Amino acid sequence: MLSNIGVPGLILILVLALIIFGPNKLPELGRSFGKGLKEFKNSVKDITDDHDDAPKK
């Protein structure tokens, strides 16, 4: 899905985000997004690790 965006689409999204949120709020939003993504990855990893440890019948 993201591979269809391309460079012009990505630039447009970044410009719109800059206009909507302003330059002071963007770093904070990026950090929040990164933390959320990291927590999601960790929870998925924990679930898959738990599934791998389960005894097989």
TrEMBL record:
Alphabetized HAMAP family for the sequence: TatA_E
Keyword Transmembrane helix: yes
Locations listed in the record: Cell membrane
Annotated source species: Tumebacillus amylolyticus
Main location: membrane
Name by which UniProt lists this protein: Sec-independent protein translocase protein TatA
Gene: tatA
Coiled-coil zones: none
Subunit comment: Forms a complex with TatC.
Keyword Membrane (UniProt): yes
